[in-house]
Write the structure tokens for this entry.
Amino acid sequence: MRTNLRIPMSRRLLLKAGAVGVALPALEAMLPRGHAAGAATSDAPNRLLLVGRNLGMHAPFLFPETAGLGYETTRYLKHLEPNRGRFTLFSGIAHLRHTNHHSEPGLFTGVDWDRIKEPLREHRNTISLDQHVADRIGGDTRFRNLVIGPPVQWHFSWTAKGVPVPTERQPTQVFKKLFIDGTEAETKSEVERLRTGRSILDQVGEQAKSLGRQLGPEDRRRLELMFSAVRDTERNLLRFESWAGEPKPVTNYPTPKADPASDDLAGRENLWFDIARLALHTDSTRVILLTMGDVGRVKLDGLTLAHHDASHHGKDDAKIDQLAIIEEAELELFNRFITAMADVREGDSTLLDRTVILSASNLGNASAHTSENLPVFLAGGGFKHQGHVLYDRGNNTPLSNLYARILRQLGVDEDRFGCSSGVLQDV
């Protein structure tokens, strides 16, 4: 077979040819025309990884008092020192008017707080950044996007209709879905199951349309939400069906035999980070939302409190020290992940350079249930990282302005997202 390298090669073609050994990256033969060896990587796939946490971070141990790449290190930032210059920490940034501690649903949507201030009741959200980006840079990948991570109380990912996107919570099952091929019989059964699912959705849709003509405005709104979910499911079924017979990428990463224990913080977070890295490296998807959340009661030297209890410290120094044990461990794991992403080469670039990584929490101070001065890290993505960007901590800059900047960096020609007031210009 002769291959014209001026024409992008389908990744499926390489998989069918039996490429083995390691997880397949975005090879030069798969890249757009003109992206040959030694060429700029501007046409390589862009990716987005959002990491959502829900208990903030102890600000006095995190934020420096000086801005720029020459910031003085802090108790927390010393754990990221090996990657200084590869990330930017923002202080003085938040979703304005978010005041409730259960504001997870608005973290990545930037929705106006009036629409979401009662998450315990029915509320109306809008699309989250991961879903918005997946619609625009998803590409011909096995998965349009992934929403993965340990269990969280509230949803972080939302569709355009404000429907929550469930999180896939078992890393072993996510790994299997990404990298483990079924037998021929299992594949045939899966295709049939998908086709049956589409048939059922068709029937449900017709029945719902007939019912909708008999309903009042509010019930019709609820029905439209259901229609939206059905349409999203249909699109996913079509994608899954088209990929069902294609071999999955082969990786030399050891197949996890069991999900890490609930008290094993390093085992759990490292596995989730590794799965995200492998999924992006093999171009199985280009958009991931990883929900880390409350780590619970974990085994760490000197730790006696659960995460939630330690985060609600009431300025008790003993509890703050307990909280710091957890948060320093989280930052060490995040540092390991950034390093691992930077170690993956893609032509003259790296996987880190091609992936926008945003790690944020909906809380600034969990103890006081405040949503100001959020801990927000931006890593990789080809940004000109500034080390520490210091905004007014009494009059915060809209976090959605950073989201608008991220869209621009990903090649999405839009200048607004959520409740943004402009496009952040400092990275």
